[in-house]
Design brief:
Blueprint (H helix, E strand, L loop, with lengths): L9 E7 L7 H12 L3 E7 L5 H10 L3 E6 L13 E2 L1 H6 L4 E5 L2 E5 L2 H9 L11 E4 L3 H13 L4 E5 L2 H14 L5 E5 L3 H5 L4 E4 L15 H4 L7 E4 L8 H8 L3 E3 L2 H16 L5 H12 L1
Parallel strand pairs: 1-2, 1-3, 4-6, 7-8, 7-10, 8-9, 10-11, 11-12
Antiparallel strand pairs: 3-5, 5-6
């Protein structure tokens, strides 16, 4: 769109709360500009209690063609949509929604985005138990991704026992042939001792939170060949990954997941290939 917003400009965006930290507008607007499309991508800060009104309201704005969802809306949005595609049904979370006529259609691009940097590694995933910290919508996508990788067992850790039981029931009813186990947060130390990969799928460590989901002492429990993967991409690196790198572990942040899931989503909206390298460079330049 060449930087101009016109009366014909169509709208895309990211819905979350908070959403001020999101870098999605940076990469999407760079790609849109390079393609010459008359679109703009903007943030939609929507509190949880206002989500139903927001979904209905955006449908009434005909120029809104779609949106992404981030914390805390990926699961709660599902009953508000007109159609949910099979990958999102399997995961039980939606992160990308497209207007199709007068209907909202949801999908999930997080699984493919999460897998992208891992598939470039030479790892024996069949001998790499996964430990996932958190049980929200992002964690559901990570479970599906670890299943695709071939991890022999997938451990999910959370603080709320009722939420963990609900998570286990939902996932086992959607994805049948894997070994999923849920644990209280206090189980982290003994799980880390055998982990091949540990993934932070919580918001702990975001720019507004200087904490880390596991301590330096707990990080020392991981095997030397283990991978630490933080879905958070700002700050970069997070304290979690700083500790992992100091320990000598392979550390992956959420930037590549963000880029790849974003590119897949933009293709879903625009129905044509998008310039992923331009998206990547825009983020790297923005982050300095």
């Amino acid at each position: 769109m060449g930087g101009s917003i016109l009366g014909t400009t169509k709208i895309l965006g990211v819905m979350g709360f908070p959403v001020s930290h999101s870098l999605s507008p940076v990469m999407h607007n760079a790609a849109i500009a390079s393609m010459g499309f008359d679109y703009v991508y903007v943030p939609f800060p929507i509190p949880v209690e206002d989500l139903p009104a927001a979904i209905a309201g955006l449908k009434a704005i005909q120029s809104v063609q779609g949106f992404n969802l981030t914390i805390p809306h990926k699961v709660e949005v599902i009953p508000l949509l007109d159609e949910v595609l099979p990958i999102a049904k399997a995961v039980g979370a939606v992160n990308t929604v497209k207007r199709v006529g007068d209907r909202w259609v949801g999908t999930n691009t997080d699984v493919a985005g999460f897998l992208s940097p891992l598939k470039q590694l030479n790892c024996d995933w069949g001998n790499s138990p996964a430990v996932i910290l958190g049980s929200g919508g992002a964690a559901k996508a990570v479970v599906a991704a670890c299943l695709e990788l071939g991890c022999p067992v997938i451990h999910v850790v959370g603080r709320d026992s009722k939420k963990m039981k609900k998570f286990h029931g939902a996932m086992t009813s959607q994805l049948h042939d894997y070994n999923l186990r849920v644990h209280p947060w206090t189980s982290i130390p003994h799980l880390l001792e055998v982990a091949g990969i540990v993934i932070n799928a919580t918001p702990i460590g975001m720019a507004s939170d200087p904490n880390t989901p596991i301590s330096e002492a707990e990080m020392d429990l991981l095997p030397d060949q283990a991978i630490a993967y933080d879905l958070i991409y700002t700050p970069r690196p997070t304290k979690f990954l700083q500790i992992a790198a100091a320990r000598g572990l392979k550390a992956i942040d959420g930037l590549e997941m963000l880029i790849n899931q974003g590119a897949i989503g933009l293709e879903f909206w625009l129905d044509q290939p998008v310039p992923i390298e331009i998206m990547r460079q825009a983020l790297i330049t923005h982050l300095g």
